[in-house]
Every structure is written in structure tokens, then in C-alpha cells.
Amino acid sequence: MYLKGEIRLLLEIYRSFGVNLDLAVEAREIVRGETGQEIPGVKVDRESYEHASVTIVEIVDKSAEAVMGKPVGTYITVEAPVLRENNPAAHQQVGEVLARNLSRFVNLSEYSNILLVGLGNWRATPDALGPKVIENSLVTRHLFNYAPQELKGGMRSVSALAPGVLGITGIETAEIIKGVVEKVRPELIMVIDSLAARSVTRICTTIQIADTGISPGSGIGNRRAGINRETMGVPVVAIGVPTVVHAAVIAQDSINGFLEEMKKNNQAFQGLNPGFAQHIIGKVLEPFGGGNLTVTPKEIDSLIHAMSKVIAGGISLALHPGLTADDYAYYLH
Amino acid sequence: MYLKGEIRLLLEIYRSFGVNLDLAVEAREIVRGETGQEIPGVKVDRESYEHASVTIVEIVDKSAEAVMGKPVGTYITVEAPVLRENNPAAHQQVGEVLARNLSRFVNLSEYSNILLVGLGNWRATPDALGPKVIENSLVTRHLFNYAPQELKGGMRSVSALAPGVLGITGIETAEIIKGVVEKVRPELIMVIDSLAARSVTRICTTIQIADTGISPGSGIGNRRAGINRETMGVPVVAIGVPTVVHAAVIAQDSINGFLEEMKKNNQAFQGLNPGFAQHIIGKVLEPFGGGNLTVTPKEIDSLIHAMSKVIAGGISLALHPGLTADDYAYYLH
Amino acid sequence: MYLKGEIRLLLEIYRSFGVNLDLAVEAREIVRGETGQEIPGVKVDRESYEHASVTIVEIVDKSAEAVMGKPVGTYITVEAPVLRENNPAAHQQVGEVLARNLSRFVNLSEYSNILLVGLGNWRATPDALGPKVIENSLVTRHLFNYAPQELKGGMRSVSALAPGVLGITGIETAEIIKGVVEKVRPELIMVIDSLAARSVTRICTTIQIADTGISPGSGIGNRRAGINRETMGVPVVAIGVPTVVHAAVIAQDSINGFLEEMKKNNQAFQGLNPGFAQHIIGKVLEPFGGGNLTVTPKEIDSLIHAMSKVIAGGISLALHPGLTADDYAYYLH
Amino acid sequence: MYLKGEIRLLLEIYRSFGVNLDLAVEAREIVRGETGQEIPGVKVDRESYEHASVTIVEIVDKSAEAVMGKPVGTYITVEAPVLRENNPAAHQQVGEVLARNLSRFVNLSEYSNILLVGLGNWRATPDALGPKVIENSLVTRHLFNYAPQELKGGMRSVSALAPGVLGITGIETAEIIKGVVEKVRPELIMVIDSLAARSVTRICTTIQIADTGISPGSGIGNRRAGINRETMGVPVVAIGVPTVVHAAVIAQDSINGFLEEMKKNNQAFQGLNPGFAQHIIGKVLEPFGGGNLTVTPKEIDSLIHAMSKVIAGGISLALHPGLTADDYAYYLH
């Protein structure tokens, strides 16, 4: 789809409008471009389910990290367009697929202690996914401290935090989490965040889980500092869901579609400034600043509600081995 | 900006993606195109204030109605970029400018009875403006029926309705309003609605008031039936605020920007299908349907909150002649 | 429990603090007092389910109407303490019991057209049940007007309205409903409302359905005008759920408990003013006005959320004969 | 009002239903009882304003601490019944009175760094005050780190945290705060919390500020661990507002009112079990557990909204010496 020079230009445009390639599957697609060949240092595997397909992208070495713009690690993408429909049985299946894939990253004893962190601003709909997952999660740590032994069968100690956003707290999210981690001392952190995608089809239909945590600048809130094993001292699994597409991507795609149309007609431009696309997009989006304008479907409120149930259900199923199917169904709906 | 054939094409593209030109000032701008001459049958007047500028567009006859795609009537646009800032004194001035312009349409005795109608879905942020204005308005009709005479000095009888949206009620909004109008028998109806604009600069900075009521197909919820003097039997003043830009407009603007860039370089296409732009935009936006995807700034929740205060304040000031400045300030904040 | 003179006194106290006996089972209990004999003109029947018990109180004649303070008609009470627990399977059973009992009042052809009305204020938690049921209901009327025939199998035409409250609209709720009824022309109206109970055990565990509609003065919002067959011209089924206990009831129960304690000790008062209890309660509750103070459990938000799902599910199952178990489960959760 | 033995009984009843005497002025009133004499080790001072009266209770020594059941320190109570009315000018005055009294506890350089903490659950109306104050506060710490020097004139570095509640996080609130304090290193902490009062007149009309921080067991959420200078290592100012009365207090007051009525009639009981009141209240409130049932006025949502503005305004005025009157008015409304 893209030639070498074009990729560089595309990424430059994105950068200039604050657009981050949050999804590894999208980064890979762009980098591979028209060559159709796998990127050196990147391994890909796939699984299929009735209502979901899973793509596992492994970034194996530093050279692949540089090309992909994402740290070495494993990125699992669950794609399930059915999440946009009112189909509770199918949502349940997606939750189970999510749980199974989360389990690849969860290597814990029954006494392990896990901290869930929901990033984002619960007052701004597309950024509210993280706090909503926290609200719907099965939190048990306080019961472990106070309740009798028999209540704990099959449950792990889980705590949860919705740290808020920099604009409201005045504190870097990573600082708040680090402070709490030093008190709670979890063996594992799971961070839930809203992402931006390059395609509107992905909004609330795609879930990415990664063992690399959160990179600086990623997420629709552009988290400033990393939340990962390096900064937190324990493994961090990131669960991200695209809830918006940056308006700059829509603009860029439209211009790109035009260029393709021209190529089909064997026409070409001469004398165009290399930065012309950036210039045009800037003029279209300038008033609010490009990175600040996002595209969402009208039904975004209910899509996020449904997605928060699927993720809270999947996490609970992955973390509490003794959870019954009935309890689980409860968390999904 | 546009040549004749281009306007036709542009409007066709908009129509195919369910985009309506809700603002008369924008429709006029497009129709006038590059000619710079006023449209026959359209009169324009302007006023300036410290924090707001006002444009009055009158569509005088049926020929202008056909060209503009909007019914004969008066459309007043208040433009106030300051509404995006935390400046309470400036917001108060905009509310007063709104009140003064609403008064042009309010020709009532002190015993008149006015019905406010807030269109839209309070669960979907950019469509929640109407219901929020209703919540913040100074409603008095029940006091007129129950309270002693001395409480009513300087107040008119005002009632309010938030009828909900078709998807939740199963009933055309116009049917609900008509049913209530036949009970309440107001002398005037004011309808508040969320609109779509062609420019992101207008989001929550522009207020349009019109004596034509609501046309079918307008508003971001695409109200299906008209709410106007014809259907309601009494004058209907519409107060509309752009809260979104359709994604299709962003896409179209980007392509258009490209074409302009080419013209500057004295280049032209050959052999392009006339529907190429529509085709490209369709491909970019297709997954959710073009009309369903909207662009909003991230801070849309707080912008709508502030705007609902300004409008509720302006309406109260226009309808209740005895309202004091202090009461008014309360309604603005 | 109560002697004749005491009942009269109790009802007087309630009336003076704006407390209405919304539940027929509670009115019957009070009126029967200590006699243990059934009230003439009142018939009672019972049914039991695993997770719910059902009491059917029929007020047969005008003399019973006078004694009970509730109009002639049938009052079905579903009691299900399990609604306070996280038990989705049990909630589903309660929804089915509700559907079965609603069906006693639904005598409709497959082409019938039903209007749901959710009373109350969605901004005030304990009064938000009605609007929340409307949001969760399966509304189809607009599909009947626009969709192809094959989509309608097994569905009836259902529309829905949340008319708001007098303080916000300035319009009597009954007027709004009547206006809409004259447009929609339903064969049946179902009205959902929040009630006050005499016992905190009933909060969000009891559902009353009645073929008498809504009486003036009932509900926690003290609806001013009746919504019933007389005012609406078609049958009105009322679905009511206690969400609060008036503080005056707590005060009265405490005093009453004291009197009982005394009796057990064979002591009695002399010289007490007959209005002493009213006087005491008034002093305790006076600052906000007795009728305005309500008692709720801390978890009222989530109790109302769960109850709105059960009721929306039960209504949908009762009205749409073709609804599948899967669809139904979706509406319950 | 109370005799010695009665006070002991009253406090026992409260304790058994989880009722804490959060307000020092109420504790003092009860302890003083009918004697009318000041409690040894307690000093009281008063100030009056047009719309507010201020009572300063100092608990000077350990013996007073034991009698009052509250730690040695200064408790300032601002009483302003006008907060229940729509009177913006009066609310502004109360905010200024609050600011002046907060300043007694704020002994900081212009470079000091302050952390605001809003306790409570934003999903449960009467417990949402803390998080709502955080949302409305003027937070600047991130600007100090990123913005140019000239923006900071007259501002102090303020950050803010809404840590959530144990039931949702599984983590003691004090642990979360301590973790963040170790990162942010503030010179002063201000904690905002919802309290329970003994009188419904106090709901959202009284503000208590204290230099003792939060004691274990206080607040309507019954915070389990203390948040004070001892646990946090820096001074902690607590700002508390009664938003509920425990139902047990209503019950107890009713019984007490009865006893008084009897005394007036020169009657007395014999043979009453000393625990009779506790027994009666238990029977009335038992189903939900006494401490869990709270009394609130119907308009609690809007009362809390107004109060959160007054407190956020007062805090901002106390902490930012350069705040102008206009900025301040904005925060109040």
C-alpha cells in the first residue's frame, strides 16, 4: 500500500498532528507497505474463533523495534466486529477469547496479587473506557484482608485504581501509579487504556493486549510517561481499545485515496511541495489543533459501555481461576 | 471558493453522506462561491460586539429558498470564539447578545405562554445540548397555576419539554411536541437543537436563531419531520448550535485542498470519474456509514456544558422582562 | 398490629407528612390490624416461586375502596429479596414471574400498539427508575412504520415516553401523556413509577402491578393528577417499585416500637395529647419538611440499575410474544 | 439536653449502628448536655457574617479529647443555611468566609506545594462531594512543571486526587494517598469528605474544617484508617460537609422526643430494659443494617453540586493569593 518514501512522509504527518500508531497490527501493515514481505525481526501468528480472530505480532529484536516504532514484546490483537451488535452470546465468546489470551501473560501463583489500572477521564466519553472497566471489575484484595478463608477459594487478590488524568490531578499518571504500586506491591499490573486507530472499523471492535505496558505518548490522552516493567518494577500487561480515529487520519486517507485514483489514471503531479499533505490537513483541522480533533460514531456511549463489560469479564475470568460461568456471564452484561 | 458545477457536486456529496447544511451563513458562503456577489433574494446585515459578531441573513423569496436550500425567513448567527475560553464575563455578554437577538422574534404580551423544546439525546454528548438547556431554564408555568400573584411580577409563563429521540421513544419528535402543544397551547415555541457545521471552528462557538423552526432532515440527529409554524400552528423559533462536523466534510475538504494545491501548480486531471470524490470518501468512511461519523474536540463535554448555560441564560433574559442581572448571572454559570 | 383508633391516628400522621400508602399489601396489613380477619370487599390470593412470592389483592367494591384508600381493581405484588443480591439467574426468574403477571392485564391482538411511560426525574437517583426502564426497553413502533414486514414477526408495536417532572417542565405529567396518547393512540398504557414503602426491606425488592393506573398524590414525586383509564381513555397498567421510605415512617415506627415495649411492661400513658406523635415527628423532621426527607440504602444507585433491567426485561417478555430467551437475557443484564 | 447516664447510652446506641459524631459542634452539644457549662479543656469562639456564622472549637488537652471523642486540635464550623437557596451572591460570601478560615491553617511560602484529596464514591450521590470538589478545583502543579514563569504569578502549585473507595479499589484510601504523597511531597494536604450529621438542618449547610485530618471510622463511607499528620508526615486539613443523617439518629430522636413528652406529663417508666432503645431501633432498621440507611432531602443532587462549587472556590481563594475576584466568581458558579 505504501512505498518507502511514502511511509516516512506518512509517519511525519502523523507525528506533526500528534497521531500515534497505537496498534501493532496497524504499524506492521504500514511498514510492510506494498512489498507483502514480513518485516525482519517480526513474527506473526493467527487464530480464528466463530466471533473473533486473533493476531499475535512478536517484535523480536531492536532493529524491528526501530522500524515498527514499538518496543520489543508480544502484541495480541483480538478483532471482533460482533462487538458492535446486540449479541450477548457472541460478546461472551469474545470475553472468553480475551481471557485465554490474557492468560499467556499471566504466570502467577494462587497467592499472587494483581493491580488493575484504568487510565483516562471518566467525564470524556471516548476516554472513559479505563475507569469504566475498573468499576465493573471483580476486586477482592480487601476481602482477602478481612474475610474468612473459605470465601477465597479460586480467587486471587485483585485491586484496582483509576488515577485520573493530568489535566485534573496535576500529577503524572505514572507517578500516581508508582506511588500506589510501592504500597500494594503487586506481582502484575494490568493497565486498560483508550487508543486511537487508523480505521473507523476498529472503533470498539478491536482489543490489543501487550506485555510491553504503555509507551510514552500513546493512548488518546497521550500519556506522557511510560507505565511498564522498567518504570514499575513488575510486569505490566496493557489492554488497549481504539475508541477514536484522529481527524488527521481521515484527512490523510482522503488525500491518499485521491493520489491512488490518479495513479489508476496514469497521472502524476509535478512541482508539488513534499509537505503539501501536511499543509492541507493543517488548514482543514487547524482551529482546534489537529491532535485534539477525533472522529467517533454517534453510538460511542453504548459501544464503550458494552466493551467495558467484555473487558472486565475477560480480566476476571483470566485472574480468578474459580470463577463460574454464571458469575462470568454476570460480568459480561 | 467554488465554481458553479463544483457546488452542485459538493452538495451531491454531502447529500449522499447525510450531511445537511444546517447554518444559513455556511450555505450562503458556498452558494456565493468565488463570485463575491450577493445571492438574489438574500439580504445580509451585520453587528459587532466586543466578544461577539452577529450576521443576519434574510431569505426573502422562493427563488433564494431554492438556491440556498433553506426556507424563506430570517437567520441570525451569533459568532463568539470566546465561548471556548473560561471567561465568565465574556460569556455573560454573549448571553445578552443572544437575548437581544431572540427578542426580535418575540412579540408577546405579558400574559403569553411559551414552550421550550430541547431536542436530542441526553445520553450522547454532542446531541445532549437541547435537554441540558431545558434543565438549566427558568420554568414558571406551574408557579403561575399555583403561586400567589406577587411572585409573578416580570415573569412570563414558560414550560419546557425534552421529548427524547426516535430510537428511544419510537415516536416522531414532532408528534410528541404537537401532542403537548395541543394541551399547553403556547403562543410561541422555542426549539433548541444540536447542529452540524462545515468548519470545526464553529463547534460550540456559533449560535443560529431562526424564525423558520426546524426543517426535516436537519440537526445532528436528522430530525425526520419539520417543527415549524405550519406543523405546530404557532410561531417556532429555532436555536441551533453546531456541536459536530461530519467526517465526510473533513474528507471532502482534504480532497478539495488538494485540488486547490494543484491549481496553484497549473496542473489538472484528465479522465477522472465525476463521482471520484464521493467514491474516495465512501471508502474512507464506509464501515460506520458516512453520516454517522462525527468529528468533535476532546473537550466537547465541557464546551456543551458552558454553551447550555449561555443559551438558558439568554432565553430567560429574553422571555422574563423582570429578570435581574443577578438572577441572570446565576443562569449563565 | 394496630387497633382501630390507632389506624386512624397513623393515617393522619402519614397524611400530615405527605406520606402515601402506595402499596396495596401494606395498606391491607395496616387496615387489618390485629384482627387477623380479611377486610370485607378484599380478596387475596398467593403464588410461590423459587425466588419470588406473589400476592394478588383484589379490591372488589366501593366500601373496600374507602377503607383501603385505593381504587377498586387488582394489585399484584411480586416480592423478591434476591433482587438485592448479585444473582443473575434469580433476577431472570423474577423477570419471568413479572412477565407472567403482567400478562394477566394484557389482552391484546398482535397488531396492538402499547405506550410505556417512565415517570420521575432521571437526575434524582431514587426517582430515576421510570426513565431508566424506558432507556432499557425494547421499543419497536418506529420499525413498524419503516422496516420490512419480516422483521416484525412476534413483535408488537411499542413506543415509550419519559415525560419529566413538573418542577422541570412546568407541565402536569398527565397533560403531557394525554397529549402524546392522542397522537399515538395506544390500546394500552404501562406506567412505571418509583414508590414509597413503609418498610426498608421493600426497597428495590418489591414490584407492584395494578390495573388501576396511577392515583393522584402517589409515587415519591407525588404525581398531582391521575393517570388511569378515566383520564387516558384506555387501560393503564401501573408498575411501581418502592425506592424510598419516608423519614416520617422511620420516626413513627420508632415511637410505635416504644409504645409496644411499654405495653409489654404493662405501663400506659396518661394525659398525652392525641397529636403527640405528630408533634414529635414534626420536631425531628421539620427543617426540610417531613415529606421531603427520604431514607435510602447507600447502594441505591446500583439497586435501581438492577431493578430497571428486571422490569424492562419483564415488560418486553410480556409484550413481544416472539422474543427469544437469549434476547430476553440480554435485556435482563 | 442530656443527663450523664443518658449521654453514655446515646453514644452506645450510635456506636452499635455505626454512627459517628463527625461534627465537633455536635459532639460538644451532646457532651455539655443540660449543664450549660463549658467542657474542661474545650475553648469556644464565634464570629458572625451576613450569611454565615462561624464557631471555633478548640480541644486543648487529652482529657477533653477523651470526653469529646475527637482528637486534640481546632475545629472550625461554618454554618450557612443560605446554601440551600439559589442565591449566588450569598454563596460567594460563604466561599470567602471559608477561604478566610482555611487560611488560619495555611502557613506556606509562595513555593509551597499542596495536595487536595477528595474522598468518596462519585457514583453514590451523597458520597460524591469529595470527587466533585476535585473536578472543580484550580489545579496548577503540571503548569508549574511545563509552563513559562510568567503564568505562575500569584499561583501556588496545587495537585489533586480522588482515590476512590475501598469497595471499588480493594485498597485502603490512606494507602493510596500515602503512596502519592511520597511521590508528590506536598507541604500540606487538604482532604474533602462527606460527613453524617445529627440534624437534617445541617445537610449541605454546614462546613467543618479541622487541623486534625480524618479520624478512622469517620465520614459517611466510614474511612477505615486515619489520614492525618501522623500517617502522612505533613499537616492535613480536613474539610467535611454533612450530606446525610443516619436513619438510626432519626429513630433515636423520635424515641427521645417521646421520653421528653412523658417527662412533661410527669410520667416515668419502670422495668424498661436499659437497652430498649437500641432494641427498638434495631427492629425498625434491621433489614439493611442500621449504619447503611441514610436520610437525605430529595434535592440532594443539586445541593451537593452547589456545595462543591462553594468549597472549590474557597480552597482556590485560600491557596492562590493572586486569584482575582472574577476568576473566583467563576469557580463559585
From TrEMBL, chains A, B, C, D:
Root EC class: hydrolase
E.C. designation(s): 3.4.24.78
Residue ranges of the propeptide: 1-22
Maturation and modification: Autoproteolytically processed. The inactive tetrameric zymogen termed p46 autoprocesses to a smaller form termed p41, which is active only during spore germination.
UniProt subunit comment: Homotetramer.
Reported function: Initiates the rapid degradation of small, acid-soluble proteins during spore germination.
Protein name: Germination protease
Source organism (scientific name): Desulfotomaculum copahuensis
Originating gene: gpr
